Amino acid sequence: MKQPLVAVALCYGAGVILGHFVEGPLLAAFIVALTLAVTAMFLALVRPWLPPLLLLLFGWLNMSTRQATVSPHDLRRLIHDRAQLLTVRGRLTETPVQRVVTRNDSEQFHTRAEIEVSEVRLARGDWQPAAGSLMSRTPGLLSSNYFAGQVVEVTGVAL
Asked: What is the rounded CA–CA span in Å between residue 12 and residue 14?
């Protein structure tokens, strides 16, 4: 057996792909996974068949928990999957990165930064709590005064 973890990776990957296309109820999936894991520990008869099923289920759970909107303050619930003008307040997760794009023999600079959002103000609204991450792309170069962990306020269009 030259590559013993190929089957493990295939089972887990199949679960991730399943989770991408099928959103399942998280609580029920956790209960089923725990029940199967306990069953595999105590029943030797089904032990050979349950690990592949558990790997598939864990891959599905991993993808489902990342895509699920659990918090009532989740940005995806507040923005409603449409482009709109908003202002966010949050913390920079890392120091902004400067990029150069060359088009038609001219250089264009922009800065990218990931923001862990704590509050959001939608168009003509008040500040409300929010949870989530946004990637900001700003034309031009920012000064060196921006660094990881700093609280910032950004206004723009969320897509």
From this structure: 5
What CA–CA distance (Å, rounded) separates 52 from 154? 46
Residue-wise pLDDT tens digits, 18-61: 888 888 788 888 888 888 888 888 887 877 788 888 898 889 88
SS3 80: coil
Can you spell out the DSSP letters for 72-112? TTBHHHHHTTS-EEEEEEEEESS--EEEEEEETTEEEEEEE
d(CA 79, CA 5): 41
Measured over the CA atoms of residue 141, residue 146, residue 149 and residue 152, the dihedral's sign is: negative
Fill in the amino acid letter for 141.
Answer: L
| Residues 86 and 156: beta-carbon distance below 8 Å | yes
Alpha helices in 43-151 (DSSP H): 50-67, 75-79
